[in-house]
């Protein structure tokens, strides 16, 4: 059976990870490890979904608060927030969606760890140092995006519902509202992960900072277009609420890439070279040249 080998160490000081059976692992061993990690991820997700079913009422009360804070939510029953159920199975599917969302978020440390535990053995030592940072930032970034989506949901709904003509009553179904807020949470949460993906691609050498700087204006324009298309509402407030944080995180990611590449150029590691192999010469200006 063919064996998978680690790439030859490069000039940037990358060396195969330690404890990887001398850089060799059979294809079947990879597949077995992948199967086990997928099973653990699904087990964590199932536990989270079960907890979501048990605590559905407080979770739902939290999710419906942005809508219930609007005047339009009390038009059908003055003084009471009202969402309509129009189908026999609609209530069950709402419970299932809420539990699935809660389970996905609550179990994120489990399945994110399984992803990184599977990927990091294939990374070089200098790339592997950043895996813990990615693990520590992925969940908070997603939660920050989801929290922002929750905060702007009421404003976005208020703008959209304000277009209703006079003499009409607002009566959203429970499934329509849940779908709206779930899409907002997922889109905002995933969008906040994009700068982390940029840094990861930079660390593994796929996305140099110079490429990012060259296409900066176009990238920012694409972010605004993405925000306009991705948000389920068509109001400009939701678009700007998503685009501005994305641009800010993009700037932070580019700054980190600049600092990392600058430090890497100064602290290039030649420990992977053998004793009889010479390191590259620095042909830059020396102190002696400056004296002359």
Automatic annotation (TrEMBL):
Cell membrane recorded as keyword: yes
Subcellular location: Cell membrane; Membrane
Pfam families: TatC
Gene Ontology annotations for the cellular component aspect, listed alphabetically: TAT protein transport complex
The keyword Nucleotide-binding is annotated on this UniProt entry: no
Keywords, comma-separated and alphabetical: Cell membrane, Membrane, Protein transport, Translocation, Transmembrane, Transmembrane helix, Transport
Region (Disordered): 270-292
Domain of life assignment: Bacteria
InterPro entries: TatC (IPR002033)
Primary site of residence: membrane
Membership in a protein family: Belongs to the TatC family.
Subunit text: The Tat system comprises two distinct complexes: a TatABC complex, containing multiple copies of TatA, TatB and TatC subunits, and a separate TatA complex, containing only TatA subunits. Substrates initially bind to the TatABC complex, which probably triggers association of the separate TatA complex to form the active translocon.
Protein's name according to its UniProt entry: Sec-independent protein translocase protein TatC
